[in-house]
Amino acid sequence: VAEASCAERSVELSAPAATFITIPTNRSGKERPITDAEIAEWEVLYPAVDVPQTLREIRAWAMANPSKRKTPGGVLRFINRWLAKEQNGG
């Protein structure tokens, strides 16, 4: 098996991250994409949590509560708080 050339590796590294889900924000029409890489990291940090399902719940909450949606920059803090709360048993 031949090793990938530098050019091939650079294409692999620069490929866009796959989006699993988007979270609506308080900016009209803007949603924060959540990538598979972010999910993989959260699964390590919060092993007792079903991260993909929890993200679906967070999206549903944001859709049902438009006046409480977070800013595009605040979405990650919100997700981390939610996951930590789930990890610690509510």
Average pLDDT over all residues:
88
Secondary structural class: alpha+beta
CA-to-CA gap between the ends? 49 Å
Shape: globular
Radius of gyration: 16 Å
SSE pattern: HEEHHH
Strand content: 5-15%
- Residues in helix, %: 40-55%
Spans of at least 5 consecutive residues whose pLDDT stays below 50 are: 7-11
Q: What is the count of DSSP helices, taking H or I runs of 4+ residues?
A: 4
Major β-sheet profile: 2 strands, antiparallel
Widest sheet: strand ordering:
1-2
The beta-strand count equals 2
What is this structure, in a nutshell?
By secondary structure, this protein is an alpha+beta fold.
Q: Could you walk me through the main structural features you see in this protein, from its secondary elements to its overall organization?
A:
This protein is α+β, with helices and mostly antiparallel strands and 90 residues long. The protein is 51% helix and 12% strand. It has 4 helices and 2 strands. It has helices spanning 6-14, 36-45, 51-64, 75-87, and strands spanning 19-24, 31-35. It has a two-stranded antiparallel sheet with strand order 1-2. Strand 1 (19-24) and strand 2 form a beta hairpin. The N and C termini lie far apart (49 Å).
